Amino acid sequence: MYESNFQFYPLIMDEKPHSVRVDLNALVFEEGYPHLYVVRKPYKGRDNGFPTELAFDALNTFEVAITDLLSPMDVQLIGAITGNDVCDYFFVSKDCIALESILKEHFPEEVIGVIVREHDDFEIYKSLLYPNEFQIAIIYNQNLCMNLENEGERFEVERDVEVLTVFERLEDAQQFGQHFEQFADSFTLEPREDGMIQTRMIASIVPTLPTMNGISQHIVTLTNQYNGYYEGWKCSVHK
């Protein structure tokens, strides 16, 4: 049975802040679901373009209703983009359906727009919805900080934070480490069984989400420069 994996990350589009929610597992639909539909649902937004509390509740109610309607038709929600007073829902299907007519029949009072795309649906998924390395790091940070908070973390005390990266060559790992000589309390290298070089960097940090987002963005930039990969971070909980 298919299990979705929806994650959030922020995005700037047309100089406006947006929030992207994407099913990271949706690539399994790439071969058999060639039809893409974008359902546009306007809402009353705040000054920054994000929905008010009432509008957010209305969007949630609408999403539940539309997915309950379309799921039996084998129409899958793969993502949504919210911002600038509109929410775009992205659906894919095996067969071409008259979605606009279906929605008008079931939601006659709703203001809805429908955009239909054929045969390039997952190019849109890959280029617009699916997160890049920097956005994946933000998703990782959000989830880890939320888990820490759920365990009682108050984000007030510095502690050892271990940051992990991996490189194909020892020389690249060493050059990467030189950028953190003033920042890190320790930086170690060790070979892995797969031939890659694992780095472990420890620094004393209060691991708030903004702090870890800033650090991870810098690390991803450097790992790209030195043919490496960012693997995340971990730390203890301070209640």
UniProtKB/TrEMBL annotation:
<dbReference type="Pfam" id="PF05117">
    <property type="entry name" value="DUF695"/>
</dbReference>
<feature type="domain" description="DUF695">
    <location>
        <begin position="5"/>
        <end position="130"/>
    </location>
</feature>
<dbReference type="Pfam" id="PF06877">
    <property type="entry name" value="RraB"/>
</dbReference>
<dbReference type="InterPro" id="IPR016097">
    <property type="entry name" value="DUF695"/>
</dbReference>
<protein>
    <submittedName>
        <fullName>DUF695 domain-containing protein</fullName>
    </submittedName>
</protein>
<dbReference type="InterPro" id="IPR009671">
    <property type="entry name" value="RraB_dom"/>
</dbReference>
<feature type="domain" description="Regulator of ribonuclease activity B">
    <location>
        <begin position="140"/>
        <end position="235"/>
    </location>
</feature>
<dbReference type="InterPro" id="IPR036701">
    <property type="entry name" value="RraB-like_sf"/>
</dbReference>
